[in-house]
Amino acid sequence: MTSTEVVKAVLFDMDGTIINSVELIAECWSKAFKKHGIRIEPQDIYRVVGLPADTILEKYTGTKNPRLHNSILEQARKCFEEKMNPNTLLYNDVLETIKQLRENNKLCGIVTSSSCKRTIELLEKLDIIEYFDTIQCYQGKLRGKPYPDLLLSALNKLGIKPSQAIYVGDSYIDYLTARNTGVLFVLVKRSWNTHIVDKCSEKCIVISDLREISNLITNKIK
After folding, report:
1. Which of 7, 141, 149, 175 holds its CA 20 to 30 A away from the CA of 157?
2. What is the pTM of this model?
3. What pLDDT was estimated at residue 74?
4. Which CATH number is correct for 9-20+88-218, 1.10.390.10, 3.40.50.1000, 3.40.980.10, 3.40.50.300?
């Protein structure tokens, strides 16, 4: 992105970026796998954050057994729903950030590997769905992250080029997705992902708070 190009859109990953859910997701995945006799620790899940659920299931079960996959996934979802607290789920730097971006006439979107059902339910429950101009979730028709399909689809819906957008995420998978799409990546540091910072080098800016994004855009990201 050059200093003469204007950032027209800011696209966000969901889990771990705007929603404080990764640690609980890792805990629930781990418990669900262990109930099926597969010893997977939360730390193992951190390494695959950002991938679609079917990819994670195939990786750690070593099979494509749909019955097994559905059983593990259902237990993980049940665990998450029982333990999540909607009052603390939204990071405290999110609302101010997206409101400011919209006030500055920037398009905002979500690009996530989560299912569309879960994505819409969470965004509605948190009462922030109205702030996003496009929501691109994983439907199975498009390849999941780190392939560029989801991010490209969101850009096409908004009618903008990769060079006119930034993608904000929290995982190495998000970084690879942005790089594969030709979009500048902004890594937001969260409690669980400090080990990723050194891995994200080319076309990557690291921030500690989402509220830094507006200043980055104002100062013409290079």
Report:
1. 175
2. 0.91
3. 96
4. 3.40.50.1000
